Amino acid sequence: MQIGIVGLPFSGKSTLFQTITKSHFDPAALGKAEAHHAVVKVPDARLDECSRIFSPKRTVNATIEFVDVVGLKKGETGSTQFTTNFLSNVKTNDALVQVVRLFANDAVPHPDGTIDAQRDIDSFETEFILSDLAVVENRVERLKKQVMKSGDELGKRELPVLEKCKHILDSATPLREHDFSKEELQLLKTYQLLSIKPMLIALNLDESQRDQADSLRKKVAELKEGKHTKVVSFFGKIEMEMSELADEEASVFMQEYGITESALDTLIRESYAMLGLQSFFTVGEDECRAWTIRRGMTAQEAAGVIHSDFFAKFIRAEVVHYDDFIAHGGSFAKAKEAGVWRLEGKEYIVKDGDIISIRHG
What we know:
Layout (H helix, E strand, L loop, with lengths): L1 E6 L5 H9 L14 E6 L3 H10 L3 E3 L2 E6 L4 E2 L5 E2 L2 H8 L3 E7 L15 H34 L2 H18 L11 H7 L10 E7 L7 H12 L4 E7 H8 L3 H11 L5 H12 L2 E6 L4 E8 L4 H8 L1 H5 L1 E8 H6 L4 H7 L3 E3 L9 E7 L1
Parallel strand pairs: 1-4, 1-7, 3-11, 7-8, 8-9
Antiparallel strand pairs: 2-4, 5-6, 10-11, 12-13, 12-14
Helix pairs in contact: 1-8, 4-5
């Protein structure tokens, strides 16, 4: 799963990418056409606690890939130009993080002259909607001719879905804010539509805005949050400084600033959840691991993520939820005595935080 980080010039997009991925590249590389990719661990305090209990030989976090999407250019008037190259680069991502600048800095002026979060968010939304509309309109016209000429069955199923999309886009609404069935999403997948991708809006603030952070986030959230759009805030410069420190030094730094948790840890987890992903755990003295699955997957499907043989030879899953496990002293024996440890069949829907052991043939 891949999440693209987008943003206007000087928004802090590449700073966020470097901070999340702890990859510090030469500033001269920022203007080059190649995107930067990095796989990062998804922080999970539950996995950390399981590792503390079992002291395993190794601990394996869930991971997610981030991409610093390139291709935006300055137009002749100085404003940002959304190039075909940029839009093509966005299409390959499963979800997006849009970095929006809320800090003022005369030394690095905003490309549009002023700080305006709604304008910046809308600039991306408009481009994505227009791009999708061009794709959908073109395909609708071709399908109508195709269905009339040959009665194509796939075209008959696809056409009403695309017409639904056209109606939504004509109202200047991103597709992500509407519900589509699994079948509809499967039909739309090949088009790599931009406005259907889940969006996390990340507001970049500076140190002077610490006391305003919550109110600024809420103000934007009231305008922009939706079914698959969420708003978070972070302090780019502070987080960058923290990412360059050793863990112990970073902990002291956070205490001095009154930060209980890195906003970037929250951002990574939100990105993970935004893709409809969740974690279950396998634990023991050899290894404690977080496994990534999509929400709604069954115990048998989750077993197949561990090993393909486990899917084919699945018998039962031993399951206890992390919260119940911890509530009973981090002991399987006590969890069994309390009745919260149980055997589940192949149709059991795995919950986020389940600790699972697979019985297989």
